[in-house]
Amino acid sequence: GAVVSQHPSWVICKSGTSVKIECRSLDFQATTMFWYRQFPKQSLMLMATSNEGSKATYEQGVEKDKFLINHASLTLSTLTVTSAHPEDSSFYICSARDLVSGGAEETQYFGPGTRLLVL
Amino acid sequence: KQEVTQIPAALSVPEGENLVLNCSFTDSAIYNLQWFRQDPGKGLTSLLLIQSSQREQTSGRLNASLDKSSGRSTLYIAASQPGDSATYLCAVTGGSNYKLTFGKGTLLTVNP
To answer: Chain B: nearest CA to A94, how far in angstroms?
Structure first.
């Protein structure tokens, strides 16, 4: 149980285009989802926290107008990188928290990640 | 602001050796500490989770300890195998929103 999927796993795009990444909880309802970014040889950095049906909370230094997050349902959150540039090339990982079925608040289930390369 | 540091950044050992990875954190007000494994270009695999009230957790050849008051944790890997080669990440959960803070990881290479 507690499986989180991400799509796509790989994406290559031209500079200036927008890219959407999906994060799905497959067998549980995710009241909260998290989006992380990982640059090569760096740690995962939390970008934003999204709660179903409400606006995402962004971490300091993360541009909310550039990284649009939507959490319209209990099983799906999307991250859209708008007008992507080469410096946005990174590994994006989502995680989800299951509180509906009694999951612990401190437990997050991670997706497999999406590698974005902007040319 | 919580900061997590992992030492060493990279470690190369011959197969069969026992090894220790270190993690330290600056704010001891944590709910738990987790050790993850990350293979190149892949997501995270949770290895061990230690609640703040616990001192250690064991899973197979892995043993993780936690000294919350001193802000330290160690991951002990016994009888290392080439398949253990990966990056090992340490993360602590804290704050009102149960935020995870990660270290940069230790890149482990086990040579056959």
So the answer is: 9
Ramachandran angles phi, psi of B84, nearest 5°: -80, -10
Interface of B with A (CB under 8 A): 4, 31-32, 36, 41-44, 46, 49, 89, 91, 93, 97-105
Over pLDDT 90: what percentage of chain B?
84
Write out pLDDT tens, residues B22-55: 999 999 999 899 999 999 888 898 899 999 999 9
φ, ψ at B83 (rounded to 5°): -70, -10
Shortest CA distance to A33 belongs to which of A6, A54, A52? A52
Substitution target from A7, A33, A43, A95 for chain B, most B beta carbons within 10 A: A43
